[in-house]
TrEMBL record:
Keywords: Oxidoreductase, Peroxidase
Lineage, uppermost ranks: Bacteria, Bacillati, Bacillota, Bacilli, Lactobacillales
Entry superkingdom: Bacteria
Protein name from the UniProt record: OsmC family protein
SUPFAM superfamilies documented for this protein: OsmC-like
Classification via Pfam families: OsmC
EC number: 1.11.1.-
UniProt GO molecular function: peroxidase activity
Top EC group: oxidoreductase
Length: 145
C-alpha cells in the first residue's frame, strides 16, 4: 500500500495556507468576501478540483484498455454547502450536502458508449470512492513544538 503525505502551514496573510507535498507548493485561501486574500482556491473548491482531476486521470487510464477513444473530456462540477453548519448550526452538516458533475466528451463514440464509459470511470475513480463512501480520518497525534 502506498502512503501519501501533505503538510499545511498557515501563513501570516489572513486565511492563507501553504500546502505542500513532494516539494510542490500550493497556496490555499478564501475569497475576500469570506475574509481571505483571494490568492488561491479555498478547501472546498480544491475538493471539487480533486474530484475532477481524479475523474480525468481515471478516464485516461481506462480508455485504452476499454477501446474508448476521445479527444477531450471536460468535467464540470458543483457542490452545495450551507455555511451555517461550519458556523455552528448543529442541524446542518459542515461539508458539502451534495456534489454533482457532468462529463462532456469530444469524441466519435455513441451516447450509449459515452454513458457506459462514464459509469466505468465513476466506479473506478478513487476520489469519487472516498467522497461517496467516506474514509476514516484519525487525529493521530498532537505535539507542542
Amino acid at each position: 500500500m502506498e502512503r501519501y503525505n501533505a503538510t499545511a502551514r498557515k501563513t501570516l496573510s489572513s486565511l492563507q495556507v501553504d500546502v505542500h507535498s513532494r516539494g510542490v507548493h500550493t497556496t490555499i485561501d478564501e475569497p475576500e468576501s469570506l475574509g481571505g486574500t483571494n490568492t488561491g482556491m479555498n478547501p472546498v473548491e480544491l475538493v471539487l478540483s480533486s474530484l475532477g482531476t481524479s475523474l480525468q486521470e481515471t478516464a485516461a487510464r481506462l480508455a485504452p484498455e476499454n477501446k474508448f477513444t476521445y479527444e477531450q473530456m471536460i468535467v464540470n462540477l458543483e457542490g452545495d454547502l450551507d455555511a451555517a453548519g461550519f458556523m455552528g448550526d448543529p442541524d446542518i452538516r459542515n461539508g458539502f450536502q451534495e456534489i454533482r458533475y457532468n462529463l462532456q466528451f469530444k469524441t466519435t463514440e455513441s451516447q450509449a458508449a459515452c454513458g457506459a464509459f462514464a459509469d466505468l470511470v465513476a466506479a473506478n475513480c478513487p476520489i469519487e470512492d472516498m467522497l461517496s463512501n467516506g474514509v476514516t480520518v484519525v487525529l493521530d497525534q498532537v505535539e507542542i513544538v
